Input
Amino acid sequence: MKTAKDKEVTEKLENVGKTILSQIEKGQNPTFRLPLRTLSNVYFDEKTGTIKLGDKMADRQFLNIAHSRKFMQTMLVAAEIKKVIQEEATISIRDLYYALKHTIEGTQENTFEEQSESDPCIEDIECSLDLLREELHLAASAKGIIAGDVLIKDGKDTIDLTKMGSGGWSVPSNVEPDRIEFKKVNAEYVLFIEKDAVWRRFNEDQFWKKQNCIIMTGRGQPGRGERRLAQRLNKEFGLPIYVLTDADPWGMYIYSVIKQGSIALSYSEEKLATPQAKFLGLLTQDVEKYNIPKEVTIKLNNLDVKRLKEMENYKWFQKKEWKEEFKNMKEKGYKLELEALSKKGIRFITEKYVPEKIKNKEFLP
Amino acid sequence: MKTAKDKEVTEKLENVGKTILSQIEKGQNPTFRLPLRTLSNVYFDEKTGTIKLGDKMADRQFLNIAHSRKFMQTMLVAAEIKKVIQEEATISIRDLYYALKHTIEGTQENTFEEQSESDPCIEDIECSLDLLREELHLAASAKGIIAGDVLIKDGKDTIDLTKMGSGGWSVPSNVEPDRIEFKKVNAEYVLFIEKDAVWRRFNEDQFWKKQNCIIMTGRGQPGRGERRLAQRLNKEFGLPIYVLTDADPWGMYIYSVIKQGSIALSYSEEKLATPQAKFLGLLTQDVEKYNIPKEVTIKLNNLDVKRLKEMENYKWFQKKEWKEEFKNMKEKGYKLELEALSKKGIRFITEKYVPEKIKNKEFLP
Output
């Protein structure tokens, strides 16, 4: 069943074609105008608190030998997406690449050699039409899990996220409002957990029930679906998002992506990032605060130190609380995994560490 | 709530301790007897069709300087597992490592330096007591998804796998009968799909409904939970398991693990492997059969060729159908991804390729 969104997207795609067609009819050089997606056009917007794409534009022209291959590819991708929406299907970006790959008749030339050629075309269409790839019926990989007192309508199914047993509901790639509707949300906050294994500890203890919250994991760096879902829960229901990761530069970067977004997806971050997200832990400062034995800390390696230096330079980490934590991590020379809290007892993390931090509002901004 | 299985496991663990204690009381050298888990003691059992551990045994002795560290570690792990079961919790193997890591009083010596020291102790306990690690309340990573006309009882929750929307139910790590009970299974077979993105295509098309089957994915090499679930569906309900992977040595090895098991887990394969599983595809032979354009095939690289050679030597691949396929792959010099079928149309895989193969019983053994 085509949604209103599908009709809007189809129209936008058709307009791209119509514009090109009218240029041809007028004897003009067929030109596709799109935002410039280079680092020089990416910035951190202090006002919204998200990474954004600037307003520099570029023209992709058919009659420019440096552009014509990319022009052809962009048009092929746009046409295929329209077809996919018409067929009421969702495909992966790898499917799209294969569906379009062929040797152009009468030549030895392939339309695409690698998926690395079709992916940027998708991104170009996303940002020039101001659409998410999910709205283009393209599925990103989704690997998250969620549980809590939430009732979701997904197609014909009504899904009760309190009744997912030990498994949890697998978050789909597309959680746009025309696909995923929240029928009920009874929770005070969302706990966004870096690791799958830790999420399972929280789920086994029915933390979401005891603390009246929603527990989510993105299994490492979260996918678009998980991030969009967190944003929707924050925007539509005013739920705070608390992020729980390892105390290392990689965990803290996961937080940074949930909150501010990433440079690679700058053009979509207004729809994916949650600037209100807060960092619950772990911190290397927790080692002394909670009297965690040094044996379970891990010495920073060269890669950690290098990444930490990069993080210190990010504009959005220029806050005194983060400067303190980064300083402590460097001085102590160690990092700490969430599982290390098991040293303090199997349920230390679910019964003491997280509830106390939330009760005392001990967050990093 | 402790299950009968929990009581049985606790008793087995206590018996380990009691045996050691009685040896000490008699002034004997404390000794833990366990199956030898080296390659020389692993074999392929033609009768059961699974990889197995042989009957060579080894003794781990406290008063042997080469054994004493490992002896101490094994006892620590056994004791902690008993504690975890008592606390009615499930923890990850990383949690276990951290929970047990400490500097031994009066020394500079740590009980464990790396998780690579505690993991083998878990395996030793598993195979010496003939238990799965799930029965020891240890969670392995589980990343699979499932959908179909199945009603599952998981703790207090009854979960209807027809009503999981676009997400699916996330398969937990522990699917033992005392945790996961099948209340209803209405399906003719299980389709076990290598890739998440492909599973989503099948789920979107409600393939499980149209074909009256269960669709599962292990997202690459499946975890223990997914394999055990497939085995249970096969054993308890007689459902055939059809495996769908890329046509490359890696996909075919995934099939091999589902069917025969792996060398690393040889001691558990009787409980994890499904010797009745059949290989549905892809095959490189499908390229000609289904007239798939050569542009979407991928040239074999050196690693592929090396892996293929290893596979050709496995005992369980000594069947004429597999020899033919391996020969074809080598001669053509290409491999093929599941997504490449999108070249034949978005729904070619769900509406033609898989249904036809099943209808015509075109499987590899």
